[in-house]
Amino acid sequence: MAQGVRGTRDFYPDDMRVRNWLFERFHSAARAHGFEEYDAPVLESEDLYTRKAGEEIVGQLYNFEDKGGRRVALRPEMTPSLARMVMARAGALALPIKWYSIPQCWRYERTQRGRGREHYQWNVDVWGMDGVEADAELLSVLAHFFDSVGLGSEDLVIRISSRKVLEEVLGSLGIEGDTFAQTCVIVDKMDKLPADVIEAQLGELGLSPDAISKIRSVLGLTDLEALASALGGDSEAVVELGALFALCDSYGISDWVAFDASVVRGLAYYTGPVFEAHDRAGELRAIVGGGRYDKLIGTLGGKDLPATGFGFGDMVVMELLAEKGLVPDLASGVEDVVFGMGSELRGPAMQVAGRLRSSGRSVDLVLEDKKMKWVFKHAERCGAARLVMVMPDEWAAGNVRIKNLDTGEESTVPVEDL
Ligand code: HAM
Predict the structure, then answer these.
(1) CATH 3.30.930.10 segments of the chain
(2) What is the rounded distance in angstroms from the CA atom of residue 184 to the CA atom of residue 115?
């Protein structure tokens, strides 16, 4: 009982400082690109997530019946909530919609490095644009973020493909619709599961061994020219990906991106470009994943609106930042420690603290009788810039003593001037 639930995290102030630092970088990269923040409840109706394609995420739902007999779930991802919100105001929202959020998401996963049962997931999405310009803008948000935390394109790569690659391969074999989505979900696991398991699952969908080997060979491609010769020059996938990579050039982010046909993604709803970022060393799980999902609202019973976006978890990126020595050493944020010498000067110390706080300083007031030695140690522990001492003679003359904790310099300052 005294332990937290397995796979969940406590954030002590030290952890919280780092989390806030990370989230602030998320906020600023989104704001720098003109995205606005939104939020939604962590509890949703279970049927928002019950999709039939056999996705892992649905099997990992934290779902239950509430006291009113309704089937509810803790959100495993933000995209369905966002779709619900957009759908509820369809027609009333100016397009394109460019929104972002940092929700906590819940999945009953096997816990491992970089994967927990809850995580915070930065979501950035564009609705109402069907061109690859929107996808390129998202990639720019990502490059901006990575740059802002000190990660370079030598540390990680954003691998890009399109669901249309597989759609065209399967289309040529006469496979479409639901089977297509289910095939994507299975193919996404190709590098995680043994070949015979994958083949058995695809076989159940009606795919012949020939079809499977065709899929395998196309998914092995990592250059667009080879893709063009496999799919033909007028392939929509090839044209779309060519345009997307050209835009990345214009943004100056080509070093960050690479074509890789094996990127399919494990969620059923993607319809176009899909991408995932991985550490170059290949040691960690995906840092971020996203793509275009033009038909999600339709599956929820509304009128489709094109959309694209990504989800970026807080856990894997922290692993990478730690590995690269990029996690900053952050101070508590306290600027001044105020100390009244002796209990008679406690009242004056409160006045001094009040004055500094009103002027916008972050002040930690020493509330108990303490020795000078303790006060110095305490100020150092807080990482404060100044120690403000209220002392008998100085106070009588309307002054306080201020010690600059960086330089060690002390000065007498009139209270009026604080
Ligand atoms: P996803 O690939 O399921 O996509 O998750 C996106 C990211 O969330 C992952 O790359 C990872 O960083 C993080 N993540 C997911 N599960 C866990 C976990 N159990 N522990 C730690 N981190 C995790 C989606 O959720 C899509 N809804 C993203 C999206 C938004 N697509 C379009 N818009």
Answers:
(1) 13-323
(2) 22
Query: Is the per-residue pLDDT at 325 higher than 70?
Result: yes
Task: For domain 336-417, say whether CATH 3.10.20.30 is its number.
Answer: no
275 lines ligand 1 (CB under 6 A): no
For residue range 102-158, what is the model confidence (pLDDT) as tens digits?
999 999 999 999 999 999 999 999 999 999 999 999 999 999 999 999 999 999 999
C-alpha distances (whole Å) from 38 to each of 21, 119, 153, 229 are 20, 18, 30, 43
Q: How far is the CA of 312 from the centre of ligand 1 (A)?
A: 6
Instruction: Give the closest residue (by CA) to ligand 1 atom 14.
Output: 313
121 CA to middle of ligand 1, Å? Answer: 7
Report the pLDDT value the prediction gives residue 1, as an integer from 0 to 100. 66
pLDDT at 233 over 80: no
Report how far ligand 1's centroid is from the alpha carbon of 203 (Å): 28
Q: At what angle do helices 209-219 and 224-231 cross, to 10 degrees?
A: 150
Q: How many Å apart are CA 248 and CA 263, to the nearest integer?
A: 18
Tokens in use for 405? 């904790």
Tell the residue nearest (CA) to atom 2 of ligand 1: 289
So what's the pLDDT on residue 172? 86
